[in-house]
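Example record for the data management plan.
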Amino acid sequence: MIKRKSLLQGLPAALIVLSAAISISAQDQSGKHNQRPQQAATPAPVGENKTEAVKYTYEFSQPKFVVKHILLEHDANGRGTVTFERLNEDTPVVEPIELSPAALERIRSSWQALQFLETETNYQADKQFPHLGTMRIGVERGDSKRVAEFNWTKNPHASSLANEYRKAADQAILIFDISVSRENQPLNMPKLMEAMESLLKRDALSEPHQLIKLLQDLSTDEHVPLIARNHALRLIKQIQK
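Corresponding structural encoding:
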């Protein structure tokens, strides 16, 4: 894992987060200073075979994007990791992730609708948009494993699934960037608050309520510029509406 301080050098903070949302939006349109926010616990999985471990994966790649590669992996409970690589960075970042109960239910519903392991459906539409990036979705359960690749799809369940995963990845990257900024470059916090608001307005975050504790901590952190603290309070009200 790379050192956090080096990640911020040479990249505008708002661009770090916003560039990650391009492909799917085109298609579907801490009490303590250094403490990371804890994500909400998820319920026991519904309808999963308890005798076999299952792994779900979502991968996105576009070598020209600021966030050029994302790999999200999770188990039946929504717990896993998100790995992402940035342009001109040699080492990927690996962060833990825990999907909210609501997001996990939406994702599970899409997987079930696809009957992914039981079919060999090609989700790629006739129309190609490779400049928006390539997506791969996959499931591994016991001896069964399948990965499907597309850059554009008309299948509503595949589209919804990719969109949900992209929102989850973008939220995890945003939390990481905020944590880095608090520790190393707090003057970047105003731009990150602007980036969060932009994502909120576009419904591009997986579960905004998971961010409330983080925003509360930011609003009382004297290391954070006052303009960012006040912005955090406004974002809390926006999320709670």
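Summary line stored alongside the record: Residues 1-49 have pLDDT under 50 and may be disordered.
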